[in-house]
Amino acid sequence: MTDLEKTLDASMNDVGGIALTELVVPGLTLMWHPDLGRIGETLPLQSGHIEISRSQPDFLGADGLARAPLADRHVSRSPLAITVAGDQIVFRGKALIDGVAVDGVHQLPRAALETGVTVEIARRVLLMLHKLPLEIDEGPHHGLVGDSLAMRKLRGAITRAARARAPVLIRGETGSGKE
After folding, report:
1. Would the pLDDT of 73 be above 60?
2. Range 134-154 burial, b when 16+ CB lie within 10 A, else e
3. Do residues 148 and 27 make contact, with C-beta atoms less than 8 angstroms apart?
4. Torsion sign across C-alpha atoms 64, 68, 74, 80
5. Alpha-carbon 24 to chain mean position
6. Are the beta carbons of 128 and 151 closer than 8 angstroms?
7. Contact 90, 104 (CB under 8 A)
8. Which pairing describes strands 14-15 and 18-19: parallel, antiparallel, or unpaired?
């Protein structure tokens, strides 16, 4: 079978030959903050453990650079500890976890990362604990906006299709932006 006869599968789980399962870690995304410019900042839990308080740690901006801690006077100096280990997520401290008031220890299954876990601190800050894509240089963005795992898969599929020296058929609903 020649290279032109091979079918490229748009559902392949890699970006430029790197397995996408290696590109995600548990992490937090800032969904609400009194300073609206902070929304969207992220914090990867590379070690699987993090302690969040008013003064630590620094969240990362869209450029990947450290910005600032939560820095809201309503947020306690006593940290909320989050540990993702094995098949469990363990919260220690005071927060609203997926709508449940917690003041102590609370556990959830690791599978909850698939849909995301909301973490509300001091009724002022809302975080989403979920699978966070690691920052890698996966190539061109092809004019597509977004940084989710699905968008990285789509960009990888477009890059693979563009490398093929064969006609490509793009299918989709009317008005979905196939041009």
Report:
1. yes
2. eeeebeeeeeeeeeebeebbb
3. no
4. positive
5. 7
6. no
7. no
8. antiparallel
pLDDT band at residue 91, thresholds of 50, 70 and 90?
very high
| Distance, CA of 2 to CA of 84 (rounded, Å) | 46
How is residue 13 written in tokens?
Answer: 């789980």
Q: Rounded CA gap, 61 and 152, in Å?
A: 19
Residues 10, 19: Cα–Cα separation, whole Å: 14
Residue ranges and CATH numbers for the domains of the chain are 1-15+145-179 (no CATH), 19-133 (2.60.200.20)
Tokens of 107: 């556990």
On the CB side of 125, CA atoms within 13 Å amount to 27
Pull the structure tokens for residue 41: 């900042």
Structure tokens at 139: 């190539």
Residues 3-19 have pLDDT tens digits of 555 554 544 444 444 44
Residue at token pair 């997926």: 98
Distance CA 107, CA 114 (A): 16
